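Practice set, problem 2.
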Amino acid sequence: MAGQVFVMNVVIVLLLVVAAAVALVLQVRHDSTVEARNRSASVAETFANSPGILQALRGPDPTAVLQPRAEAVRKATDVDFVVVTDAEGIRYTHPKPDRIGKKFVGNIAPALAGRTVTEEIEGTIGPLVQAIVPVEDPDGTVVGLVSAGITTENVGGVADRQLPLVLIAAAVGLALATGGTALVSRRLLRQTHGLGPHEMTRMYEHHDAVLHSVREGVLIVGGEGRLLLANDEARRLLALPPDAEGRHVGALGLPSDLAELLVSGHAATDEVHLVKDRLLAINLRPTDVRGGPAGSVATLRDSTELRALSGRAETARERLDILYAAGVGIGTSLDVTRTAEELGELAVPRFADYVTVDLFDTVLAGGQPGGVTPLRRAALSGITEEVPLYPVGRHIRYVDSSPQGRTLRTGRAVLEPCLDAAPGWQAQDFERSAQVVEYGVHSLITVPLRAGTLVLGVVSFWRSVKPEPFDEDELALGEELVARAAVSIDNARRYTREHSMAVTLQRSLLPRRLPEQNALDVAYRYLPAQAGVGGDWFDVLPLSGARVALVVGDVVGHGLHAAATMGRLRTAVHNFTALDLPPDELLGLLDELVGRIDQDEAADDSSAPVTGATCLYAIYDPVAGSCVLARAGHPPPALIRPDGTVEFPEVPAGPPLGLGGLPFETTELRLAEGSRLVLYTDGLVEDRAHDIDVGLEQLRRALETAGETPEETCRTVLDARLPDRPGDDIALLVARTRMLGPDQVAEWDVPNDPAAVAEIRSQVTRRLDEWGLDELAFTTELILSELVTNAIRYGGETVHVRVVRDRSLICEVFDSSSTSPHLRYAAMTDEGGRGLFLVAQLAERWGTRYTPAGKVIWAEQPVP
């Protein structure tokens, strides 16, 4: 209503403003036109009758005389032009000089007849009002014309001044109309609570329809206890008479407790009252809480069917919760037994009182299930521990008549609602079956654990506390629950198989036992990752001259590919070690090998390249007490001095294996006897929770408290650093150094003279006699005679002989030549070539290794 009034006021004001503006414009235009006619006529007549006009028109140059005078008059009288023409209409004057001499625009015929003419025309300077006055001789002859005019654009200044006043008056009128409308609108909004006319109409139109169509009964009771209103649902639920409205509630035949509640005026929420055969939920609220009229409003809802529906809905919700929990809580680990236990823990007591999971033995080991293999009880969960069911770990063979036997045979779930009346189940074990029934277990569901076409085992759900037996709906729930668990158990089985294969492969590739040697006391530990085996490896390799090589490596990744790659690298190290190469050269060869492996794998789409490999290689010499190390992207070694101090020697890191093109550097350490060299892989010091520097510092603290033996050191380090669930493999190698004393080593410098060979043989024989190795004197003399003679003849000026008594007798001949002799068969006519053949026959092993100053030819003989 307020909006309509406002619109009407606006329309009235706008009509008045438009009418006033139109009238003003028309009036001003008329007045301006009259004024323009009068002004132009008066100016033209005055100029035409001015003195000297006739003389100027008769003169030789009228323009020169009249143009200045006409312009002066034009400016003085505020007209737009004053034009003087001859009797033929040719201009003598004009405000624009270029128009002088041209034909005058206008009707000059009346003026030539002696009359004054005022007209509105379209002139050369635009629309205008002009007056034309004749200039006459005393005898009445028209000798010229004078015209004065004003253009239309200069007419109407009064309208421009008066129109703003009209607009201001209109704005004031609109403001008054707006203010009045706002006051009326606010008043109406308070009265209608913000509802507009359409909403008010719609509310009243739908009031009765909504009231009588809702599924809840509605009663309005006045302050005196009389029924003011009842909808159709309330009449049906309470069986009210047709004339119930207006009567007192107590006279409607309602139960006394319900009638007392309706007239009490107290609030009530979901109070249940029995009305005939119905359970009604009553909600009552007083209407005078916020200043309303006295009385109350009651709503009635039939909860008879709702109670039954809510019970079924609650059961369905609980079953959905169980299935959701199964998806989250089953399969948290890749352990078959733990996954079976999670199934039992989830189902007890929410679904069953006891749950047993029986799996084939081969499934527990990661293999394919088979019907001929026995089942083993993998899990037993229940509300108590005294239930007389088969215990965990028990091998079970189910008879065909038992529910479990039928489930395994047919692959379908079986429901036994009453166990004491199931002879097929009792035939499994009459004594134990009687104990189970006596204990109170009365109902059973058996469901096969199926993964595709494979039956992994059987799950049994037992009920004892709840008196109702399992039903068909619960059978379906059990099948769904077991189906979800079967996927996780099968995944765990597959992982167990893969893990076992990888562990078996890796164990077969790692050293079975350490080689016998006297240079180092060695202890080691290897721990595979929780998620699967990886590519960590280590080795201890005896070298010539009583030296020992220690190697630790790591191939990035887990699984069979990493383990196989580790085996290839370990085999390569064994082969390269036979060449007696220094650490940096051996790592260079490994780097080339990994590069070739990557090229081969890249050519095969089904294979994966080596994404990263590291290695640390060390050679310990017990005679010199030195250790030469080189590493390729591997963590640095740790060194425990005999006094217990721990340090991490500076060993250049070098790039990881496989990058190629970069050299490796070596570092030589002097190790006192009893020092412990600790080699390890990154799984021991790296963790997602902290940086490697933190891991190294923690390793340092663990080594400072370690015992003196390598075995105690390994145990202390793993106790301090081993995580609960290692995410990476850990390889740990601890070597305590020994040294060969002066009584085990004999050395001589040999002059560059073949006659000196005999003296060397004599000195070696005397030393062997001191060592109690007289039996080896003859063969040793032959070996040294050949090796020293070749060194003097072909090896250069410097020749040095060293004999070492270790697990074997080692003869070494040093010379400054880098040329290595080769073993060959000598022909019958050859004078030489049989010396090395003789050495190879007499020695257990022989070979050549290179040094920065030349080479060493060595031969070993077993010590009796």
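Problem 2, part (b): a different protein.
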Amino acid sequence: MAATDLAATRRQLLQSGQAGKLDAPGLRQVLVDLHEFWLTSKGAELGVRPQSGYAIVAVGGLGRGELLPFSDLDLILLHDGMPHDEVAEVADGLWYPLWDANIALDHSVRTVPQALQVAAEDVSAAMGLLEARHIAGDEDLSNLLISGVRQQWRTEIRDRFPAVVSHAQDRWRRAGDIAHRAEPDLKNGRGGLRDVQLLGALAIAQLTDGMASLRPDSPGAGPQVAYARLLDIRTELHRIAGRPREQVRAQDADEIGAALRIGDRFDLARVISDAARTISYSIDVGLRTAGNALPRRGLAKLRRSPIRRPLDEGVVEHNGEIVLARNAIPSKDPGLILRVASASARTGLPISASTLSRLADYAPELREPWPAEALSDLLVLLGAGHHMVDPIEALDRTGLWGRLLPEWGAVRDLPPRDAIHTWTVDRHLVETAAHAGSMTTRVSRPDLLVLGALLHDIGKGRGADHSIVGADLAIQIGNRFGLWPQDVTVLSEMVRHHLLLPSIATRRDLDDPATAEFVAETLGYNRALLELLSALAEADSLATGPGVWGEWKASLINDLVRRAFRLIDGDELARPDALTSEQIALAEAGGFSVDIEQADGPHTFRITMVAPDATGLLSKMAGVLSLNGLRSHSATVQSHAGSAVNTFVVVPLFGSPPEAGLIRQQLMAAVDGKIDVLARLDARETESPIPTIGSVSAPGAATSAGSTDPAVDGAGHPKNAVPALFAVAPPRVLWVHHDAEATGPDPGPDPGEVILELRTDDRLGLLSRVSSVIERHGAQVRWAKVTTLGSTVVDTFCLHLADDGEAARTALADDVLAVCPPPQPRSDDDGNGPDAYGGTARSGVPIS
């Protein structure tokens, strides 16, 4: 067959009518067979036969056996040191017919040593040669090259791995992320065909098994299935465009979708996103696994195996990954999925692929309503800011996120209908929740803020008004989460009205009193709901795309919110519940007493501590609990008959709480001055391997993939997360003074008293530290109500100040803020602070 006949046959295949049209895999196979036949025939004609000292070797698409309609022919004429003139004659006889027939050709002529030298110097060439396949001629010569390249690759991978990762990252920077590009590059983008080929190269180096462990029922069903989908789409793209093209353009998308029986361009975009995200997850796991599997040299060989550091009940860190503890039993612990995810978000460490696989296989579904512990872990995850994105993506790619939120399937990989959106709908929800995590201290209900952010567009993809559909789904989901009925109502209203403020602010006259009245009336004059929607509007805009949130939009919404606040009465102040008869009896008996009882969940306990009331007692009580590894989720501080009666709801970091008698002895020692609680908390926080909620990796840790720094793994992740006290949201102090003219069921604190409300991310011993600051300023705590909502605490103290002057209150607030985790710098800060709509809290009292 002449090369012109080969080209004509190729054209005929691509011009076949619908009845004779081959499907994408069939077309690729026919093209492979056709070109192999021509090359074999032409090679025999030129003397390229077995034992001839010549071989034709294919790389690229033909080497992989997946030749596309307009892909280049990547060929190597291999020879065994033959005379130059003879080699040139054979090469010309092979290349010129292809050139004359206008068949795209990428060619080279090499001996085996020359080819190995090229592979040793060029990462791209090496990875291409790993896919080499014998086509015609001396098969022993081809095998010598193929085996030599693979052996060389395995031998040198330790030194070449950083270059391999850098090469991939450079490609991703140029081509972008396929899952979130309007016109994705299927070949070179992140999550594309090149990434699966990279996984194959790592498998040849014996660093990975080639593919991440994904269940058949997981989204994308595994990287091989995802690869086949993208390859079929790329095949149709070539056929429709009539040229070699890698980017799916909008004008071609409908035709590609129809040819593959996928649907319209939106359906095609969803398939591409699903496949790309599956491959992206797989390449993340593959690079991380490969980095950890790199062979060690020198003294590194003598290094002990990485230790297992406990992070939560049943969750540990090992070799830079989140894994299950040896005694963890997923089949008997439904909340383990969320504890693993929250630990990953807190530490910034990835979840091990084997852990995800084990959870997917054995972890049961949470019963409805969820236990309070599971909801708390979800809130910790959602409150971690952008640290939450990777754990949720890992759960989603392995089918675990859909197990927690079955409603997620309708929005998974759903492409936006508006070009202004950067992300798919599901990723937009996650990004909105991540932005909301930096705003949790601006609202009185940070838990509802992050939940509302996660669910505000959950009604999309169902063929009706997504706000109305989503509001109904929010009721269903809120009940499953175990929220109180009134909180379920607020969550549903957030979803129903999440577009209210942006729509009214940008389309109505704000100077018209009826505008603010309409907003207040629509929201049922609910101050907390208005506060939540204000923060959600900003988070939603920031997660939509660049430029959607700016000074103009922020000023309009803040002005509208400020006007609506004026029409809404203040909400009731937090007050503790009355003491029980048992607590009263303990207080009247005097002395020290500690009582521990099981609370709502298997890992939650209620501890009542009674002691003679004295300055500094609250700080010591809270500190003793923290030193025993007990995290306070809520606390009620009261007094009676000269005794302090403080109740704490706690969750142990691991196992069960210590005996009540031991805590009582430690409390007495702390009161007597035998234990310096704050000093021990500082030492524990410094030495602890357990990162604080909202923490970041230690400054100076290497971030480049492939680093050989022992503090990071091969993919650039920190191996040992060092506690660094940075909060996702900035801490805030709010003051509420007595209003002599206030009316209603709760007019406020008594005359001479003030309410100090602290909103901040948590840290080890925070309540003890804050109480110590208050006591140091000579303030008396009349009562206190402490609540931990995920990773955010809302602590309310009723204080009698020794000096109620402005300077004294400012100094107290500054010292309280000083013991809170400082906020991480926000790259998206546009100068519109969280309190731009008025900077006030309750009855117009300024926030410090």
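Answer key, part (b): Residues 73 and 105 are 5 Å apart (CA to CA). The longest strand covers residues 630-640.
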